[in-house]
Design goal:
The protein is of the alpha+beta class and 78 residues long. Helix content is 53%, strand content 13%. The chain has one domain: 434 Repressor (Amino-terminal Domain) (Orthogonal Bundle). The radius of gyration is 13 Å and the shape is elongated. The protein starts with a strand and ends in a 7-residue tail after the last strand.
C-alpha cells in the first residue's frame, strides 16, 4: 500500500495562494472536493496517489516535490 504525505502543509497552502485562486477555486480546478482538500492540507487525511498527483499538477510541480511516498506492507498472515 502506498501512503502519500505532504512534505510541508504550509508551503503547499502558500503555493496554492500564489496561483491566485482560493482553496475552493483550486479544488474546483483540480477536481477534488474542497472539504477533502482542506483535510489533506490540515493533515487529517492522507490523499490517494491520484489526488496527490492532481494537487501537484495543479501547482505545476512533480508529485515528489511536495509529497513523501511511504510503502506500507499490509500483508496479513493467515
Amino acid at each position: 500500500m502506498v501512503v502519500m504525505e505532504l512534505r510541508d502543509r504550509i508551503e503547499v497552502r502558500i503555493l496554492i495562494a500564489k496561483t491566485g485562486k482560493s482553496l475552493r477555486g483550486f479544488s474546483l480546478m483540480i477536481g477534488v472536493s474542497q472539504p477533502y482538500l482542506s483535510q489533506i492540507l490540515s493533515g487529517k487525511q492522507k490523499p490517494s496517489a491520484t489526488v496527490a498527483y492532481k494537487i501537484a499538477k495543479g501547482l505545476n510541480l512533480d508529485i515528489e516535490d511536495i509529497f513523501l511516498t511511504k510503502m506500507i506492507d499490509v500483508t496479513v498472515n493467515r
